[in-house]
Amino acid sequence: MKKQNVIQEKSFKFAIEIIKLYKVLKSQHEYDLARQVLRSGTSIGANIEESIAAQSKKDFLSKVSISLKEARETNYWLRLLDVSELLPIEFSFLKNNSLELITIMSSIVKTLKEQLKM
Domain for residue 1, yes or no? Predict the structure, then answer.
């Protein structure tokens, strides 16, 4: 069995925590926010999975770039939830995890762009 890469593993674990947050948001009747967070938060890992099967470096770059955009969007929703104080739970670790994913993917995108001379 092939060993998972770091971003693949982290984005999968992040998606699991996002699903848990989604359930809490739904229980608080925050349906719109719940759907937004679920969609963007789970899309990160889904696009990373797609990137693993990329047909070229440009295709890989495209998929990781999409994941980066989704991570940034998820971070936005998490910040919004934090400031609005809608949740009765502590979820700052999710904001930290989203920032970690953003940092890793930003580095990957930057390196690939340099390699592709973009």
Answer: no
In sequence order, which residues have a C-beta less than 8 Å from that of residue 41 and are 6 or more positions away?
Answer: 14, 15, 18, 21, 22, 70, 74, 77, 98
3-state secondary structure of 54: coil
pLDDT digits (tens, 9 = 90+) for 87-97: 878 888 999 99
- What's the pTM? 0.91
Domain that holds residue 96: 6-115
Q: DSSP character for 28?
A: T
| Count of structural domains within the chain | 1
| CATH number, position 71 | 1.20.1440.60
